[in-house]
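ok here's Isoprenyl transferase:
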Amino acid sequence: MNLRDLVYGLYARRVEGRLDHAQVPKHIGVILDGNRRWAKASGGTAAQGHQAGADKISELLGWCAETDVEVVTLWLLSTDNLDRPAEELTPLLGIIENTVRNLAADGRWRVHHAGTLDLLPGHTQTVLKEAEQATADVSGILVNVAVGYGGRQEIADAVRSLLLEHAEKGTSFEELAEIIDVEHISEHLYTRGQPDPDLVIRTSGEQRLSGFMLWQSAHSEYYFCEVFWPAFRKVDFLRALRDYAARHRRYGS
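and the structure:
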């Protein structure tokens, strides 16, 4: 261990020792950004950057387990990413599939897919479904894997699901217009039944949500971190939790 690593380790323990677990967010959303830029800066390929980013996920979940986080949403692939060239998208999907398999095999996490399955290749759909089924009874952290995810797409899918549900019940449009409210739509989101994210972390220095959990993040706190996702450290995670705990949450008031 070099001096720099030693200093970071000591600092991380200091921050962790002062962390009030009562103020830890229960649901954290993470925009895992910067894999390709990290790879470029390191002289590697995009696939190597995505793999390094995938390898970081198990570390993050371990840190979350240590600090009593209950739900983690990982944005692994957006609907916009599906338009990438096949030479980049194909290996990326393979990395995501292996990552989801590993999460399910770990035995500590309950995996749930958040996204539109129909937009994904058949083999990717199968991996996501099998991981969700295999971990349905796991009591650990609920891990939402957002694959083929877009915030606008989620809201459109929720409204479509709501309309189909009421069409099957024979509800007229006039009747539905009279009763529809925020909760009706929330019940049809990919994360229905889950608490909304308390904290959203985005790495790589970009300060925008890019459509991540548009509906659920109305009252979320945001933390933008300069480091690329593969270089994200425990001390960066702890700083995000410390920053969150220091804020006074007003829920729009």
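+1. The domain at 24-150+196-244 is CATH 3.40.1180.10 (Undecaprenyl pyrophosphate synthetase).
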